[in-house]
Amino acid sequence: AIGRELVKISRHPYVAQPFEGGRKDDRLFDNDQLETIFGLIRAAKGVDFTYYKHSTIKRRILRRMMLNRIDRFPHYVDHLKRDPAEIAALYNDILINVTEFFRDRGVFEALKSEVFPQLLRQRSAGSQLRIWVPGCAGGEEAYSIAMCLHEYFGNTAASVPVQIFATDVSDAAVDKARAGIYPENGMKGVSAERQQRFFVKTDGGYQVARQIRDMCVFARQDLTKDPPFSQLDLISCRNVLIYLGNALQKRIIPAFHYALKPHGFLLLGTSESIGGFSDLFMAIDKEHKIYGRKPGVSRPHLEIRHHDERSQVDPHQGAALASGDPAGIEHEADRLLLTRYSPPGVLISEEMNILQFRGQTGTFLDPAPGAASLNLLKLARPELQMTLRKAVTEAARNVTPVKVRDVRLRTDGFRRKVHLEVIPVATVPAAQGRYFLVLFEEDRSPAAQPPHGRAAVGKRGAKGEDQEFVKLQDELAATREYLQSVIEEQEAANEELRSANEESHSTNEELQSINEELETAKEELQSTNEELNTMNEELHTVNQELTQVNTDLRNLLDGVDIAIVMLGGDLRIRRFTPTAAALLNLIDTDVGRSIGDLKPNLDVPNLDQMIQGVINTLHAAHRPVRDRAGRQYDLRIKPYRTADNRVDGAVMTIVQRAVEATA
């Protein structure tokens, strides 16, 4: 029976179907029925797995199918509809709560050396350090960070308020984390020193000390739909994104950016990255996946606005004017003043990409035909490009405003004089990227205005001066053509580099996806290994108990001076005492033989029929018998009952009569 079961298991798709590209053959699954499973889990648990990685979920479904001895996917869907307990089991299986204390030790050393010092420097007096650990599982990650903080602060730990918010979608995981009790085999990542310092020995294993537990707050939260915490210094979200699809990752990473303080940090798993959100985060430690939040970038909206909600009028502005709010009216007056009298300009990044337009810049910027771009040099008129590049470079190098006067610009058939000023934005730390304000101011003095009429023509001077002027114009035109050719060559080279970069980025995304799949498979294997270890320990315990029971039973039978024989339902001998061996001519090799095949020393005709009758009727039988020497015995036969009160054979006892025994 065991052999047949093993063969059946080996042929199950979970075991027999090989991995292809990191996922099982999709032909085993019907998408509509997969959506049905998501609906059943959503109705029972309130969690939607629709946008999780289907490859991971399919492997967990196949595992549950194997455990329930179901080979076909539609049959398993029907089984889920009938059995709410199986829905709960599948839900818990999908949530692979695999973690440990101080997982990847190098990460925690990096936190101590690179993150905690900056958090301490940035913290204002009396403010609280706020940390969030989404997907906390059993709480090991949150407690590990709390212990590291306690070690880092040392004697000053009590003076630095710390609040670690640890959340998970699983109520069972949150309850376990909140209790903070872990078995002996769950402490392998904890050193003896930390174990003595931060844990208390209990009957159930080890409990995290009160001073560490007080730093952590555990709560249930669905990362994919519940709003995030705010004003956080650090988010540790390790090995969570690998289970989520791209749609969820693209929603969650901006939410992390929103939740962090301007100089906050994000910690991801070894196989995770920020993807295409390099405008929101910068790599602080690539090896340990520590990222810093980029300030100066608008926080993303967490809500999705409908198309009919768009408006050209600022609602706050309209409300202020309608209500006559003095502060609102003053703000509007300031806005009009700045719009009317301040010079036009643009706010640019260090790469000269325009982040914001201020005022009417059409005189100075003119989009060229071709692909759309917000690069300042591509939008600026040709006469301004060289001057702008030089001014921005100088302002970046010296970190001081640079002003260039009397730049000649031809617009609408006239030559104008333009003053340029590039001002570094000093409020943004240089370590987080530099920004510049570029202002354009047209010289409107009378001397700068274009000449009109014949008198102006007469003022040009002699013929030689005119020829020199024409020559200079030709040289200038040739220089511009040469410069334009250099710019075009550089743009072509940049385009090739951009194309190569896109290919590299695409390849990197594919490798990242494969890496995430491997990490997920590793987590699943670790989870399965832990389950097997637990089962092995349980089987070992049961085996020890069975060995003890067997030893006790053997000693009991050997020590009893009564003839006892235990028989199975097929009348085959299971056990017997030494006294029974003498009366019935039994030896050790008779175990497994039918009682009807033996020739006992007792005169008991039809013994096998008598035993079979007891098994069939469930009534005990009693009969006096004699041995060949004439000694009298009482033969008693009773049904053999199992723990669940099922009859599985008979117990036969033979006791010598008292008179005979005395004689």
Description:
With 663 residues, this protein is an alpha+beta fold. The protein has five domains: 2-94, Chemotaxis Receptor Methyltransferase Cher, domain 1 (Orthogonal Bundle); 105-293, Rossmann fold (3-Layer(aba) Sandwich); 317-452, PAS domain (Beta-Lactamase), CATH 3.30.450; 460-546; 560-662, Beta-Lactamase (2-Layer Sandwich), CATH 3.30.450.20. Helix content is 45%, strand content 19%. The chain is built from 21 helices and 20 strands. Helix 5 packs across helix 6. The longest helix has 97 residues, at 463-559. The protein starts with a helix and ends with a helix.
- The CATH topology of the largest domain is Rossmann fold
The CA-CA distance between the termini, in Å, is: 53 Å
Q: What share of residues are in beta strands?
A: 15-25%
CATH class of the largest domain: Alpha Beta
Q: Layout of helices and strands, plus pairs?
A:
Blueprint: H1 2-10, H2 13-16, H3 31-45, H4 54-67, H5 73-82, H6 84-94, H7 105-122, E1 129-134, H8 140-153, E2 162-168, H9 171-179, E3 181-182, H10 192-198, E4 199-202, E5 205-208, H11 210-213, E6 216-220, E7 232-237, H12 246-259, E8 260-268, E9 281-285, E10 290-293, H13 315-323, H14 326-341, E11 345-349, E12 354-358, H15 376-379, H16 382-398, E13 402-411, E14 414-424, E15 435-442, H17 453-458, H18 463-559, E16 563-567, E17 573-576, H19 578-584, H20 607-617, E18 621-626, E19 632-641, E20 647-656, H21 658-662
Parallel strand pairs: 1-2, 1-7, 2-6, 7-8
Antiparallel strand pairs: 3-5, 4-5, 8-10, 9-10, 11-12, 11-15, 13-14, 14-15, 16-17, 16-20, 18-19, 19-20
